[in-house]
Amino acid sequence: MSNFDDIFEGNASRKGQINQPFDKEAWAEKKQAERQAVYGLADTTAEAVSADGRKFQAYLDVQTRFSRYSATNVLLILAQKPDATQLKDFDGWKDAGASIKRQQKGISILEPGEEYEREDGSIGTSYNVKRVFDISQTTARAKAQPSVSMDDRLLLKALISRPPVPMQTVDDLPNHMGALYDHDQQVIFVRRGMDAADIFRSVSKELAHAEIAGMTKDYTREGAAFAAYSVSYMLCKEYGIDASGYDFSRLPDSFRESGAQGIRATLSEIRDTAGNISSRMNRALEQNRQPKSKEQER
């Protein structure tokens, strides 16, 4: 096999420079320091989000825009560029025909790296720092998103598509509630006679309760109330339902006092629950958009 290493020999050293071997340990230490700084920023932001209702609501808004990003990465986006709308790395924007504007600072997030074996034999995943840029930091032009008017009936049908528990309409519920997930009976009861927006807000919250109950062994309504309320807000924001009545001015003590790791766990639960409901809705809406065959029309 031919060896081409010699072609680099002429560039190996320049005037005034001394050749040095690549220091793998120094490189590893530098990368570890980068990761620690990013994790530190995520922890600091998590604690700030848990202490301020406005910051928490801002977090939910960013998570709604970046539904596929982890809670940790959304915290990092919130800390560095909360108004971001579209993110790509340098190569991604280059492939899209855009370049990064001068003097723009990248947004540091985390991406999965290689798997490794822990001391107890379990498999973990290492994470590396990745820098991305918002479209506002590039020469790309943001496309105006057309306002989409969605039929209320279709939207509500999508909301209750393949629910985790059966749903039943009733004439009245306690405390004038619009809907109620009954964990003992495994049913969501929905009060008759509401308008579309009220149905969406109340049912989305109770669907979140049912989702969380299915993922949690020790579910209690009180324990899941904050996450379910947050999920309902995110779904309203995503699908254009008025969310002005949601109030996050008083965050639960259990959330504020759970520490950075506990806060991120709650944010991940909110993100995953909203994602499950949204995925079912989008599948139902997509099926409704597909043209019917002649056989179906008959």
Overview of this structure, please?
The chain has helices at 24-51, 53-65, 71-80, 90-95, 152-159, 196-215, 221-239, 253-256, 259-289, 294-297, and strands at residues 87-88, 107-117, 123-134, 167-170, 179-182, 187-191. It has two domains: 24-137, no CATH class; 152-290, no CATH class. The chain has ten helices and six strands. The chain is of the alpha+beta class and 298 residues long. Strand 2 and strand 3 form a beta hairpin. 48% of the residues lie in helices and 13% in strands. The chain starts with 23 loop residues before the first helix and ends with a helix. It is elongated and about 85 Å long. The model has no long low-confidence stretch (mean pLDDT 90).
What ranges have pLDDT less than 50 throughout 5 or more consecutive residues?
A: none
Task: Report the major sheet.
Answer: 3 strands, antiparallel
Q: What proportion of the residues form beta strands (DSSP E)?
A: 5-15%
Discrete helix count: 10
Look at the helices and sheets and give the structural class: alpha+beta
End-to-end Cα distance: 68 Å
Spatial order of strands in the largest sheet = 1-3-2
What is the typical, i.e. mean, pLDDT?
A: 90
The tally of structural domains comes to 2
Query: What's the count of strands?
Result: 6
SSE order in H/E notation? HHHEHEEHEEEHHHHH
- Silhouette: elongated
List descriptors:
alpha+beta, 6 strands, three-stranded mixed beta sheet, 298 residues, three-stranded antiparallel beta sheet, 2 domains
